[in-house]
Design a protein that fits this description.
It comes from Nicotiana tabacum. By secondary structure, this protein is an all-alpha fold. It is built from six helices and no strands. The C terminus is likely disordered.
Length: 217
């Protein structure tokens, strides 16, 4: 009886082991199948990912090419758009300076100057004189006014209005004195050399007033 019970127990244990092995085999097969499905899905998705990478690479490359083309065009525009001064020959500049100097010699210096012009700087006084007398000042005089203003930088009273230091009548007389020198005793060759050396010289050349007979008061 005891032997029969032992055989039953051994049989039951054997069945249990078979069931466990069977379940384990099914579980492994299921896991492998799921893993293979994931790999297959990833492999199917790979061409799309590769396509995205390629297209994005082409786009960035195309953008870079476009930027290079734009930069090249910009450089070409800058190269072809050089200051006009570089295209003017020395002879042309000398002719221009001669015409300018001949015109300025025809503009009479005002003889009646009784006004007191308040001013804070030499350039400001020069601008008031042009407006009051209706005539331009010489290029060299305008440059001179700029230099006189620059001479004040760093002084103890450079923020003080200039007409409190120099009387307005004396200041105006000083401008007309150097203006007469520049109009009557300046070489157009000298002016041309200054213009050739300064591409921004026109900033100090006042507009031309054609009616010379009305230029003095």
């Amino acid at each position: 009886m005891a032997q029969q019970d032992q055989r039953k127990v051994a049989y039951a244990i054997g069945r249990m082991n078979k069931n466990i092995e069977s379940n384990a085999t099914k579980l492994n097969d299921g896991n492998n199948s799921g893993h293979e499905q994931e790999i297959s899905a990833m492999e199917r998705a790979a061409p799309f990912a590769e396509q995205v990478d390629i297209s994005s690479g082409d786009s960035s490359s195309s953008d870079a090419d476009d930027r290079k083309t734009e930069n090249k065009q910009l450089k070409n525009n800058i190269t072809t758009g050089q200051p006009v001064n570089e295209l003017i020959s020395e002879d042309s500049m000398i002719r221009r300076a001669r015409m300018y100097q001949e015109y300025m010699q025809l503009v009479p210096i005002p003889t009646h100057r009784g006004s007191i012009i308040p001013f804070t700087s030499w350039a400001g006084l020069a601008a008031s004189i042009k407006q009051l007398y209706g005539q331009p000042l010489h290029y060299l005089t305008n440059v001179h006014m700029k230099q006189w203003d620059q001479m004040r930088f760093g002084t103890n009273d450079d923020d003080v209005p200039l007409d409190t230091i120099i009387h307005p009548s004396k200041a105006e007389a000083s401008i007309w004195l150097i203006e007469e020198v520049h109009r009557r005793a300046s070489s157009h060759h000298y002016i041309a050399q200054l213009w050739l050396a300064d591409p921004m010289y026109h900033a100090y050349v006042d507009p031309i007033f054609p009616k010379l007979q009305n230029s003095s008061k």
